[in-house]
Write a structure and sequence with these properties.
Blueprint lengths: L4 E7 L9 H6 L4 E9 L2 E10 L5 E4 L21 E4 L13 E4 L4 H11 L1 H7 L10 E5 L2 E3 L14 E6 L4 H10 L1
Helix pairs in contact: 2-3
């Protein structure tokens, strides 16, 4: 098992996203130090550093895309996202992925994002009007929710959404048509 340790340093003044002398003195070599400079309440720069054997910082490549705010000028966004659990019958439409992470704030937006990413899911998950099919149940945690509730179901970063299709009925017929 590989463990990765991060420490965050946030600069609230216009200071480069670089470690200070104090940072160097107190740093531990097994941490990656992600330094975020904040200007006018927004991240203006984000860089990652690791202490080398000579107790100097080496910059690391930080490859994180801005997934939360696509209109932002921020170069990076480190976000935790809600997760949709993909049921086995739909995995053939998601490249066998067992789950899908989403940065959407509502359930309806998350489902829309799922079908945009995997268009073949749409016909098996949504009806002709774009609503979740009646024989498919949606759960957030252990609670069943109405997915067609006009986008009022909010998701948080640790939300786990489960799609539970009926074993028989329309979904079975739809999947059988796609297999045959």
């Amino acid at each position: 098992m590989i463990s990765i340790y991060w420490a965050f340093i946030i600069r609230t003044r216009i200071i480069p996203a670089e470690p200070s002398e104090h940072d160097r003195k107190v740093a531990m070599p097994w941490f990656s130090y992600i330094i975020i400079s904040v200007q006018d309440g927004k991240a203006s720069a984000t860089r990652s550093w690791r202490l080398n054997d000579e107790r100097q910082f080496d910059e690391e490549t930080l490859d994180v895309t801005n997934i939360k705010d696509k209109t932002s000028n921020a170069k990076y966004c480190i976000c935790t996202m809600a997760k949709i659990i993909i049921p086995t019958p739909l995995r053939k439409f998601t490249d066998q992925n067992r789950d899908f992470t989403t940065d959407s704030d509502t359930l309806s937006d998350a489902i829309e994002q799922l079908v945009e990413e995997y268009p073949d899911v749409k016909g098996n998950l949504l009806d002709e009007e774009g609503n979740v099919r009646s024989f498919i149940k949606i759960y957030i945690g252990d609670d069943e929710v109405d997915p067609n509730d006009n986008g009022s179901i909010e998701l948080s970063e640790d939300t786990e959404v489960s799609i539970v299709p009926a074993i028989a009925g329309e979904l079975f017929e739809s999947i059988a048509e796609n297999i045959c």
